[in-house]
Amino acid sequence: MIFFWAFVVGGLICVIGQLMMDGLKLTPAHVTSILVVVGALLDGLGLYEPLIDFAGAGATVPITSFGNALVHGAMAEAEQHGLVGIITGIFEITSAGISAAIVFSFLAALVFRPKG
Asked: 20 to 30 A Cα–Cα from 70, which one of 3, 32, 42, 47?
């Protein structure tokens, strides 16, 4: 059943993003930014973790989980280190994903040549 709910929740997040692009004529960059902020707000309100528990990858794979990770890391480190922890927490939690994106993008750029 977890696969069903992951599909439904992840698909719903994507549908919301698509509707924002089609109905509100927003650019993909605007929609991405809005979804990250929504994920951050939901985590700040304590609502994103229950969504992850319910939907699993349906909540952790979409871009909303990046906002969740930013706030989650900042809040966890702020409890331990105060104001400085807010900044270090953001970098600590998200650094692995960003580092992986940079490394894999570099490797892809070595293998593939752009047409243009």
From this structure: 3
82 Rama sector, left if φ>0, alpha if ψ -120 to 50, beta otherwise: left
pTM of the entire predicted model: 0.77
| Domain tally, the chain | 1
Listing DSSP states for 48-93 in one string gives HHHHHHHHTHHHHSSTHHHHHHHHHHHHHHHHHHTHHHHHHHHHHH
Can you give the residue range of the structural domain that contains 70?
Answer: 2-111
Are 5 and 55 in contact by the 8 Å Cβ rule? The answer is yes
* Nearest to 64, CA basis, from 13, 4, 7: 13
